[in-house]
Amino acid sequence: MSPNLAPSIGRSWGVRIAACTAAAGMALAAGGCDRLGQRPGPDFSASPEASFDPSYGVCLEPAKPDAPNAAAEARRCLTAIHGGSVVLVSFGVQPEVAGADAEALSGLIDTYTGGKVRLNVRTVPASQAATDAYRRVLGPRNCTDPIKAAEYAASIADAAMPELHGDSFVIGLSSAKPCNPQNAGRADQAGGRHADVFLGALDGPLAKLPQQDRLPTLKRTATDLSAHELMHLFGLGHAGEIWLGSTDLGGAGYRLGQNIDLKALLSKAVYDEYGDVANVMGQGRADFIQPSEFDDAFLDWPNEIVNKAKSPMLAVGRTELALGHSDQAAGRFAVASLQQPVRLQRGSAISGQEAAQSDVAFTQIAFSPRISETTNYGVEIVLLSGKTIAHLGTLTPENLGDSVTSVLTYGKQRLEVRTQGQQVLVRELPAA
Fold first, then answer.
1. Distances (CA, A) of 17 to 3, 119, 178, 199, 201
2. Can you state the angle between helices 153-160 and 128-138, rounded to 10 degrees?
3. Who has greater pLDDT, 68 or 340?
4. What average pLDDT does range 36-63 have in this prediction?
5. Where would I find the beta strands (DSSP E) of 133-215?
6. What does each C-alpha distance from 61 to 74, 77, 123, 134, 176 come to in angstroms?
């Protein structure tokens, strides 16, 4: 999101247009901005032109690493990660906007993934056949809310334009307005190939900006939205924050050295599904993106299958797991399975709005070291639900460098986190 939007629109608008999709199988959160199309397979029944059945799931992780064809799928994903192609199909979008999006998108993804994902991006105008088919999908309301595959502009273009069949991913850029004004894009994560961005969703907010700021802001926002939807096609979920009042765990005064009852703490928290302002999968802007070790680990599955690489996600057990500066530099972190899922209702700490739909069940807790070459700052704590992340905050000792111990409890489960020298040590304790 461009900083230019902040004065007139605010962060709550950023939550809505950061181009986010609810985790697979879950209902759209109130105040959200997009959701995943759920379907068992391609369905082109709504468009006679859409007879092409493309190869789906280029980078969707197999249920099990030893599943049939898992190695072939992993190799295909590695090919897409290392030089795959993305085509942006423009349905009536200004050429300078679509062209700027293509130019900036590959660089943004490269920055966000720390160079792990390198893509070739191009822009093409939708053919007349694709345009006509999409108009029929928009219907008399002249708005879009794709659920079935055939309703995606990207899918319609794929079916009508054989020249797209060699591309890894197809994103439809349209000036259409969403039927639900809170949506700015959708990713068909069930299929893993098609996503749409609805730039018509920005008409109202952009109208509040000075004339000279509108086109530059539209260009930047189109890139932000496209990047978010594209990474959903790689299987990533949202990057959120867990707020305690208006701050996180550390800001609320919690320190390493204290014992923390997570169940009591989280009962007072608000889960902002798109709250991470430095992550493409949250509210991250092209000019303020930082690589995420969590998303980086989620993208590593094909390398683990094909090259037998060790996962950077290290399992917590009864024996202490030590993490140091070299682990942080390599993106390694500790993960413990929660005996009871942490269920958080979607909402926004900014707007105070609570979701009417289902909550999110987080089944793992992650501990990532925050250690420089000279100082042990402590540990960042994150909840995981599949490939959806929610930052709880960073715990630091009262005095940096102190050797201190905290025990985190959730029900009867107890996890010990302590600092010693230039290491963070994590283990699971016997049940209370």
1. 14, 24, 11, 10, 8
2. 150
3. 340
4. 49
5. 143-144, 169-174, 177-178, 185-187, 194-198
6. 8, 9, 27, 30, 32
Lookup result for tokens 């992650």? 366
338 contacts 365 by C-beta, under 8 angstroms = yes
Six token digits for residue 315: 């399992």
Rg (CA), the chain: 22
Facing residues of 343 across strands? 361
Q: Amino acid identity, residue 247?
A: T
pLDDT number for residue 57:
67
Whole-number Å distance between alpha carbons of 278 and 284: 5
Whole-number average pLDDT of the chain: 83
- Dihedral (Cα; 260, 262, 266, 272), 10-degree rounding: 100
Residues 6+ apart with CB under 8 A from 129: 49, 160, 161
Number of helical H runs and strand E runs in the chain: 12, 20
Task: Report whether 417 contacts 322 (CB < 8 A).
Answer: no
CA dist 386 → 15, 37, 237, 269, 383 (Å)? 21, 17, 8, 21, 10
Q: Is residue 378 within 8 Å of 257, Cβ to Cβ?
A: no
Q: Which residues contact 374 (CB under 8 A, 6 or more apart)?
A: none
